[in-house]
């Protein structure tokens, strides 16, 4: 790898990541992950020797390849590169980085561009779920400029419309609208991202605090850690001690005309906005009769649109549920408008591999 690796750095939604063709990375996961740690500059809290931005939202990787799935054009593997530990996780999807996958596929020639717009069918390798991203390609080239605006990103850009088909899994992994963990009522929901919904007041916070203030609340951190471990087992995820899922989302009544105010933990840092798939799970969870969000959210029953307020603005999700025949509800439709932008396209040079130490 002394000659470097082809890389396209993109902002996808409210995240930023390095996008690679799978063919340009080692096929062996351990070798691939070691290379990505050196490319991103981990482990180091500043990631000073790599591309990472010293935060989970800017230490992300997308690995793209042609798909053998007849319902997809490309496969998208999301990898979270941990900032301060030598760890790369593939245990979740990322809906923000997903916004850049379609444009990347066209940029790399994996999918031919349409004359006006292009739709790319994407299989999310982490979970096997699918999505379709549609974006403008006038004259057969990706257009990144436009008038779509999303909270948490300065300026405007071309819209990327992402549609998610109904998932094959259970919307309510525990089979219940409400579970009680350590005396706290929660709703465990999975509409693309395993998420635990909790009324903020049940944890003795308002839900309107700044992310930094919530992160510095050590008593809150201990309670959230305990809740997440228990919820992971209830949701069939096993031991989630070293996993990034499930996400925990604190709910409070809306303040700015939306449906609900949120504070989401990923899993220790408090998100400065909210992830796309996390918001999809929140939106579906708010519509569950008897769920923890039912009494505090302002939902318009005549509209599919749900505006999720977060620390830096809002995210609009189109979400509707279908009533299960004598059973729990299921997701019927989920769609979101995001934006993406190509930042640079070139060659990244990884930090040299550590030399082995110790015995013979």
List its traits.
alpha+beta, 360 residues, 32% strand, single chain, 16% helix
Please give a structural write-up:
- It is a single chain.
- The protein has 360 residues and is α+β, with helices and mostly antiparallel strands.
- The protein is 16% helix and 32% strand.
- The protein has six helices and 16 strands.
- The chain has helices at residues 29-40, 95-98, 101-107, 211-215, 218-234, 276-286, and strands spanning 5-12, 15-21, 60-66, 74-81, 88-89, 117-124, 129-136, 159-164, 179-181, 184-190, 194-199, 247-252, 260-265, 305-310, 313-322, 330-348.
- The chain has an eight-stranded mixed β-barrel.
- The two termini are 25 Å apart.
Helix tally equals 6
Percent of residues in beta strands?
25-35%
Number of strands: 16
Low-pLDDT residue intervals, each spanning 5 or more residues = none
Lateral arrangement of strands in the main beta sheet: 1-2-3-4-6-7-8-16
Shape by Cα distribution: globular
**Average pLDDT, to the nearest integer?**
94
What's the story with the biggest beta sheet? 8 strands, mixed, barrel
**How far is the first residue's CA from the last residue's CA?**
25 Å
Radius of gyration: 20 Å
The class by helix and strand makeup works out as alpha+beta
| Helix content range | 10-25%
The ordered string of helix (H) and strand (E) elements is EEHEEEHHEEEEEEHHEEHEEE
């Amino acid at each position: 790898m002394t000659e470097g690796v082809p890389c396209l750095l993109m902002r996808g939604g409210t995240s930023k990541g390095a996008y690679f063709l799978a063919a340009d990375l080692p096929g062996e996961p351990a070798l691939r992950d070691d290379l990505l740690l050196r490319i991103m500059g981990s482990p180091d809290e500043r990631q000073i020797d790599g591309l990472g931005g010293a935060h989970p939202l800017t230490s992300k990787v997308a690995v793209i390849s042609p798909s053998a799935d007849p319902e997809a054009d490309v496969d998208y593997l999301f990898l979270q590169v941990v900032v301060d530990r030598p760890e790369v996780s593939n245990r979740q999807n990322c809906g923000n980085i997903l916004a850049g996958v379609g444009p990347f596929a066209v940029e790399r020639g994996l999918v031919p561009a349409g004359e006006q717009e292009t739709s790319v069918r994407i299989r999310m390798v982490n979970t096997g779920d699918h999505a379709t991203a549609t974006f403008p390609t006038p004259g057969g080239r990706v257009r990144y400029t436009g008038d779509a605006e999303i909270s948490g990103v300065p300026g405007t850009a071309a819209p990327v419309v992402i549609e998610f088909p109904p998932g094959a899994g259970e919307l309510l992994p525990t089979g219940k609208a409400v579970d009680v963990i350590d005396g706290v009522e929660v709703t465990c929901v999975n509409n693309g991202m395993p998420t635990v919904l909790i009324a903020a007041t049940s944890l003795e916070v308002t839900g309107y605090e700044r992310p930094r203030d919530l992160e510095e609340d050590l008593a809150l951190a201990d309670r959230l850690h305990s809740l997440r471990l228990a919820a992971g087992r209830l949701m069939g995820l096993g031991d989630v001690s070293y996993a990034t899922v499930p996400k925990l989302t604190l709910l409070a009544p809306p303040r700015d005309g939306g449906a609900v105010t949120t504070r989401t933990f990923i899993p220790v840092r408090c998100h400065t906005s909210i992830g796309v798939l996390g918001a999809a799970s929140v939106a579906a969870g708010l519509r569950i009769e008897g769920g923890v969000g039912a009494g505090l959210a302002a939902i318009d029953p005549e509209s599919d649109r749900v505006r999720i307020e977060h620390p830096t603005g809002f995210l609009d999700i189109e979400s509707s549920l279908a009533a299960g025949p004598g059973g729990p509800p299921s997701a019927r439709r989920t769609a979101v408008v995001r934006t993406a932008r190509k930042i640079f396209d070139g060659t990244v040079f990884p930090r040299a591999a550590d030399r082995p130490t110790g015995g013979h």
